[in-house]
Amino acid sequence: MEIILFKKLKLNYKVNYYLLLKKRFLINLFCAKIDLIRKGVMPMGNLFTLDGVIFKTCTKIADIWLLNLMWVITSIPIFTIGASTTAMCYMSMKLAKGTEGYIISGFLKAFKSNFKKSTILYLIMVVVGGIIAGDFYFWSKLNSNLGTIMSVITICLGLFYLMILMYIFAVQARFENSIKDTIKSTIYISLQRFPYTLILVFLFVVVGYFFFNFIIVDFIMVVFGFGLVGFAFGIVYNMAFHKYIDDKKDTEEDNENEFEEDTEEDNEEVMNKVEE
Questions:
Q1: 49 pLDDT band (50/70/90 cuts)?
Q2: Chain centroid to CA 117: how far?
Q3: Whole-angstrom Cα distance, residue 78 to residue 232?
Q4: Which phi and psi (to 5°) does residue 185 adopt?
Q5: Pseudo-torsion of CA 36, 39, 41, 44, nearest 10°?
Q6: Nearest-angstrom CA–CA distance, 216 and 94
Q7: How many CB atoms sit inside 10 A of residue 95's CB?
Q8: Is 159 left (phi over 0), alpha (psi -120 to 50) or beta?
Q9: Distance, CA of 180 to CA of 8 (rounded, Å)
Q10: What is the average per-residue pLDDT within 106-124?
Q11: How far apart are CA 80 and CA 59, in angstroms?
Q12: Residue 175 bridge partners (DSSP)
């Protein structure tokens, strides 16, 4: 079986407000970890360098927090969940690969460009999921052999549906296809990359269990957790999609889509403000 997947262009545009948010967040994190310097865990010279462990870690945490914030805000209307999830998948894969650029602008651009297709895919998944859930409820209420058999079949369909759900928005985010081809590609990838599919399903089930059973987890998810889960999914998606992507072209495209303004000067500006 052969499928053709077209990789999307990287979406990176500068947003000054993003720098302000990241600056304030980094200041708080730097203050919390300053003890590492005093204890000799890290030399003083490495703290405020772009290659320093603390800077990289804090930047990643800030990006995940912003990603979570953007997903929560854009998902409030409910019907936009498909587009917001697609945008989060796109930025999560970039974040996991270290080519994310500016989170807010990249997220909004991906949200806008994928809105129509993602919304249609979201509605399709809601309808199909509702039908499967309704069928299971109906057959499970029948105290007969037929009811038992049909319940088992419905559970199997539900698991297959879950496999597709784990990938469909990520495929929409990473590849350019028609809605029909996106669904076909999702089914193909979920089966061919089955080990990664199991990892995604496991993460989804575990997070879902804690989310619906512990109130404190609900709070953590709203504040930070959705972005963290998205980042974890992004790592798995990059590994799952690796065989379908030309690494050389991928790298060249990332280089071609660098910011028009000097990124190094922007980073130095942030660091100078943090030092102040």
A1: low
A2: 17
A3: 23
A4: -65, -40
A5: 70
A6: 29
A7: 24
A8: alpha
A9: 17
A10: 96
A11: 28
A12: 7
Claim: this prediction has a pTM higher than 0.90: no
Helix 226-241 × helix 145-174 angle, to 10°: 80
The partner residues of 176 in beta bridges, in order of sequence, read 6
Q: Cα separation of 244 and 209, whole Å?
A: 32
Task: Encode pLDDT of 143-195 as tens digits.
Answer: 888 989 999 999 999 999 999 999 999 999 999 899 999 999 999 999 999 99
Q: Do the beta carbons of residue 118 and residue 85 sit within 8 Å?
A: yes
Show me where the domains of the chain are located: 15-258
Residue 100 tokens read as: 């994310």
Q: What are phi and psi of 176, to 5 degrees?
A: -100, 110
Rounded Cα distance between 102 and 254, Å, is 14
DSSP code per residue over the chain: -----EEPPP-----HHHHHHHHHHHHHHHHHTTHHHHTTSS-GGGTTSTT-HHHHHHHHHHHHHHHHHHHHHHHTTSTTHHHHHHHHHHHHHHHHHT----HHHHHHHHHHHTHHHHHHHHHHHHHHHHHHHHHHHHHHT--SHHHHHHHHHHHHHHHHHHHHHHHHHHHHHHEE--HHHHHHHHHHHHHHTHHHHHHHHHHHHHHHHHHHH-HHHHHHIIIIIHHHHHHHHHHHHHHHHGGGS-HHHHHHHHHHT--SS-HHHHHHHHHHHHH-
Task: Give CA–CA dist 67/89, Å, rounded.
Answer: 10
Find the length of the chain.
276
